[in-house]
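Supplementary notes for students who missed Thursday's class. We covered one full example, reproduced here. Read the sequence, then the structure, then the short commentary at the end.
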Amino acid sequence: MLKRIISAVIGIAAIIAVILLSLKISICIDIFVAVACALSVFEFVKAVKTLNLYQISAVSLAFSFVFPMMVSYGVGSLICFVYSALMLSMMVFFHSKITFKDFAYTYSMTMIITLSLSCVILMKDQDVAHSTFYFVLSLATPWLADAGGYFGGYFFGKHKMCPNISPKKTIEGAVGGVIVCIAGSLGVIFLFDKFIYTDETTFNYINTAIIAAAGSFLSIIGDLSFSVIKRSYDVKDYGELIPGHGGILDRVDSLILFIPFLYIIMGFLPIIIK
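Structure (token representation):
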């Protein structure tokens, strides 16, 4: 656990640095997302053993970095088209090496990872003045649920939730995750409300609690879905970049469903009332 805590502290410090920079330079969020997407896709193709198929892995890695960097400029659809055309072309021209299974796994998961995480940037573009808040909430909500689930399960866990997928996850941990997620998310908007956005910005605490409660469950589904993939390929972690936590994809898998959900639901349950 000590290794896990130390890695978390270092990771939080790095994210805080990005947050502070993003208050002045919003493109820092784009760069952060692009790097996270590229590293996640790299870890994925390595896990499913398509990394050595350079014709599709190189194209996928390029897309995962370029799309987040360029989506703000209105060329996201063009980049998706080019990526799709290149991937299909590679499957045709190198059909003796690249099977449809290789193509499908690499293409589908690259799109899911990249498009999902890039919704942070779309939220930023909709409201640049509060982009840092959306960035923090996008990361904090699933990670608070994960932390609450880990410690809740560690101290109180008795009933296994999905033993064949993730043996350590428990029902008690999931409940702890929901509680910590709601409390932590409310704490996040309180800090922004009182200390960062001191203008006329008004926050809706009830909507935040509802979103956090739903987000905690979505983070579990995202985490478990990527655990299924790991079990299918007999992989413990997607990487070793973060000691005690695994790789980048092991940390962002819980964000995959929540971030698009937050982007969509904000139109119905706004947190910031202008």
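Commentary. The mean pLDDT is 90. The two ends are 42 Å apart (CA to CA). If anything here is unclear, bring it to office hours.
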